[in-house]
Inverse folding.
């Protein structure tokens, strides 16, 4: 059993985050003051926070402490623990001791890539990526006025469940009636809240799930409802997640075009049809190409396409080949995700972590994808990480020219208010804090996750949001 004893602090969360990167899902035994991994190596270490704010980790007769600037306690304890675990395992993580979902936030606080490397042990290529992306995030965020609102509309249904998915989405093959009722409830919520909105809407994102899973009639009705009830200025960025090519029809594309949708997402995830089939996605790579061409021919010039590196049933070069094929299609945005594992997904953590049984393979194929994208004229414009991402890597959105998504940046920044409609949505209010340039204080207002409960309680959900925003 692997054990970390906490001394002088109770930062279980931070300790767990570092332990998870090396040994898998930990258990926090707060009564015993420790974090353990039952099937980890037989090692017992102590992670201490001293009264002067410095952290020291003791392991196997050695002492690990950083000589230099003391960080705030949450980061300080992770740093000395990371130093110990990296030494014990001889593994250096690409993001060093940074475990949070927003490495670009840390980059924005530091003077240079060099200080990310020195203070947090971030690898030079990742430090440079974080600094470049952070600059672009700040530029894009400045285009979203402080007092504006970002709106999210969620459709938590999909035509089938992808094997790697952890999202709270329902497979509509067995819930068709529920989908129609859900869409009607969503319209009720939008109508109830929209008339109270008293500030400009900078971005609107219809996501899921797969919004294009709605039949053409309901899909058009939802767009009518949005455009009739919410004041959407011509400069507002409106994105529709048309994720699954098998749900996109001419009729839905025409609906989107006629309503003035500016950005759509068509997500292949991989360009290997056999992988798609094994993952439970009911489309082929050829479907993706066909639908993409249809959309381009209809005049959509701002299309995002998502890829996932580290999928089961694939080796590293398959992902690089998929990147090459998307670059040939030349969408404005390509987002490279690294597979991550959450509780509800059908694939196992081992499948996520064991691509080619090697950390280096996944790392190298993501680096090669990035290189190809930059060579083809794309640049990184936003980035985030998720817990249990394969080998501690990240997800990065790439854009050509000035096409980076305002919504993606604003949403991840936790610096702009988000009003969420639909089951599982999280509305946020973000408040500037004295002395903090980038880090806002965030208040959250969740919506019930279950679609049926949402349908039953939609009036209450609408009232809760009106009160939360003080409209
Ligand atoms: S399309 Fe997306 S939300 Fe739907 S099941 Fe697949 S991964 Fe999950």
């Amino acid at each position: 059993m692997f054990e970390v004893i906490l001394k002088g602090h109770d930062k279980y969360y931070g300790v767990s985050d570092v332990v998870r990167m090396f040994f898998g899902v930990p258990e926090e035994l707060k009564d015993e003051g420790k974090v353990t991994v039952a099937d980890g190596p037989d090692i017992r270490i102590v992670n201490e926070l001293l009264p002067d704010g410095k952290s020291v980790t003791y392991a196997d007769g050695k002492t690990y402490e950083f000589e230099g600037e003391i960080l705030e306690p949450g980061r300080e304890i992770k740093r000395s623990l990371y130093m110990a675990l990296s030494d014990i395992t001889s593994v250096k993580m690409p993001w060093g001791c940074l475990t949070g979902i927003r490495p670009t936030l840390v980059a924005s606080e530091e003077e240079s890539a060099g200080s990310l490397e020195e203070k947090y042990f971030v690898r030079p290529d990742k430090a440079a990526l974080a600094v470049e992306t952070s600059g672009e995030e700040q530029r894009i965020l400045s285009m979203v006025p402080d007092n504006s609102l970002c709106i999210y509309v969620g459709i938590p249904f999909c035509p089938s469940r992808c094997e790697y998915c952890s999202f709270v989405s329902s497979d509509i093959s067995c819930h068709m009636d529920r989908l129609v009722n859900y869409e009607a409830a969503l319209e009720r919520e939008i109508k109830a809240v929209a008339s109270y909105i008293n500030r400009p809407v900078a971005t609107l994102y219809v996501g899921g799930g797969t919004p294009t899973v709605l039949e053409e009639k309901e899909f058009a009705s939802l767009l009518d409802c949005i455009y009739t009830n919410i004041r959407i200025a011509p400069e507002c960025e409106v994105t529709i997640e048309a994720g699954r090519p098998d749900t996109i029809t001419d009729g839905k594309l025409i609906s989107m075009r006629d309503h003035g949708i500016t950005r759509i997402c068509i997500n292949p995830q991989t360009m290997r049809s056999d992988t798609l089939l094994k993952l439970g996605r009911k489309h082929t790579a050829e479907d993706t190409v066909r639908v993409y061409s249809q959309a381009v021919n209809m005049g959509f010039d701002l299309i995002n396409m998502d890829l996932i590196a580290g999928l089961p049933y694939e080796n590293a070069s398959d992902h690089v080949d998929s990147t090459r094929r998307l670059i040939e299609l030349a969408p404005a945005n390509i987002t490279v995700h690294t597979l991550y594992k959450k509780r509800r997904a059908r694939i196992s953590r081992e499948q996520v972590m064991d691509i080619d049984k090697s950390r280096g393979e996944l790392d190298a194929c993501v680096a090669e994808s990035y290189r190809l994208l930059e060579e083809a004229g794309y640049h990184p414009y936003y980035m985030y990480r998720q817990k249990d991402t394969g080998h501690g890597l990240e997800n990065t959105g790439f854009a050509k020219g000035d096409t980076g998504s305002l919504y993606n940046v604003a949403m991840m920044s936790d610096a702009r208010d988000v009003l969420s409609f639909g089951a599982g949505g999280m509305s946020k209010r973000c408040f500037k804090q004295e002395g903090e340039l980038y880090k806002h204080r965030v208040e959250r207002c969740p919506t019930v996750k279950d679609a049926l409960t949402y349908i039953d309680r939609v009036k209450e959900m609408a009232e809760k949001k009106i009160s939360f925003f003080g409209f």
Observations:
- DSSP finds 16 helices and 19 strands in the chain.
- The CA atoms of residues 250 and 294 lie 8 Å apart.
